[in-house]
Amino acid sequence: MLPVACGGCGVDDEPWCSACDALLGPPWRCESRAGRLDLMGAPGGLPVWTVADCVGPVRAAVLAWKDHGRRDLTRPFAAALVAAGEELADVLGPGEVLVVPAPSTPASRRRRGGNLVDDLAAALAAGLRSGGCPARSSPVLARRGGDQVGLGTRARWLNLTGHVRVRPRDRARLAGRCVVVVDDVLTTGATVVACRTVLEAAGAFVAAGVTLASTPPPGARPASGPSDPCGSAARVVEETLRGLA
Ligand SMILES: [Zn+2]
């Protein structure tokens, strides 16, 4: 048997420990942290919910999930999105909701064996249904161009503009639909805004975004939860991951 370590804090013998799981909380609003949501194409603002601060063990786990092959973390992340969907069903329902995952580039799909965000979108839709809101998920968006990794705010936006599009076969069925966009991490908001722009150009109404985690602005204190219950172990994991990257 291969040794197993928590994808968040690195503690031995379990893939995702209860202390790290406690960092995935009930959904809270995070859009005020993302400058792009106010500045670009989002009149009136767009509510975005998240279930975790992207710091400490959560950040380590998201990196491990996306870039270091820890696909087993899909299970706890999806469970958190199911719970969020159950809580948000009253807010986003009672009408039908189409849950749309933010698309990834062909290169990252090849590297990761698919778009990991599809699983989060399916989980959110399942939670919404369980809470009484008719919802389903569908990857109606596609993406060209390079990765966002390592790019600043403006470069991210330029990299995205024109690279997110509605898949031609899905265009006709978006008119009049209420859509929720799902992504893994909300940082500048550029991805959510790019998705919203093309979905609304196809006639959909984008009601909200939901993300697994939200990056605090530089210098900000974490917005929720105990800040780092796993302490130095998490830092060791992060340093190790950084060394591997
Ligand atoms: Zn842990």
The oligomeric state is single chain
Strand numbers in spatial order across the main sheet: 1-2-8-7-3-4
| Overall average residue pLDDT | 85
Count of individual helical segments: 9
Principal-axes geometry comes out as: globular
| Main sheet properties | 6 strands, mixed
User: What is the architecture at the second tier of CATH?
Assistant: 3-Layer(aba) Sandwich
The fraction of residues in strands falls at 15-25%
Q: CATH first level: which class?
A: Alpha Beta
Q: Structural class of the secondary structure composition?
A: alpha/beta
Evaluate the radius of gyration: 17 Å
According to DSSP, the number of beta strands is 8
